[in-house]
Amino acid sequence: MVGIVEVSPRDGLQNEKTLLETDAKVDLITQAIAAGVTRIESCSFVHPKLVPAMADAEAVMERVPRPAGVSHIGLVLNRRGFDRAVSAGVDEVNVVVPASDTFSERNQNSTTDALTAVAEEVCAEAASTGLPATVTIATSFGCPFEGEVDPDRVVEVARRSAAAGAKEIAIADTIGVGVPTQVRTLLDGVRSVAPDVVLRAHFHNTRNTGFANAVAAYEAGVAWLDSSNGGIGGCPFAPAATGNIATEDLVYLLERMGVPTGLDLEKLIPIAGFLSDQLGYRVPALLPRAGTFPG
Question: For a tag on the chain, would you pick the N or C end, based on fewer CB atoms within 10 A?
Answer without folding.
Answer: C
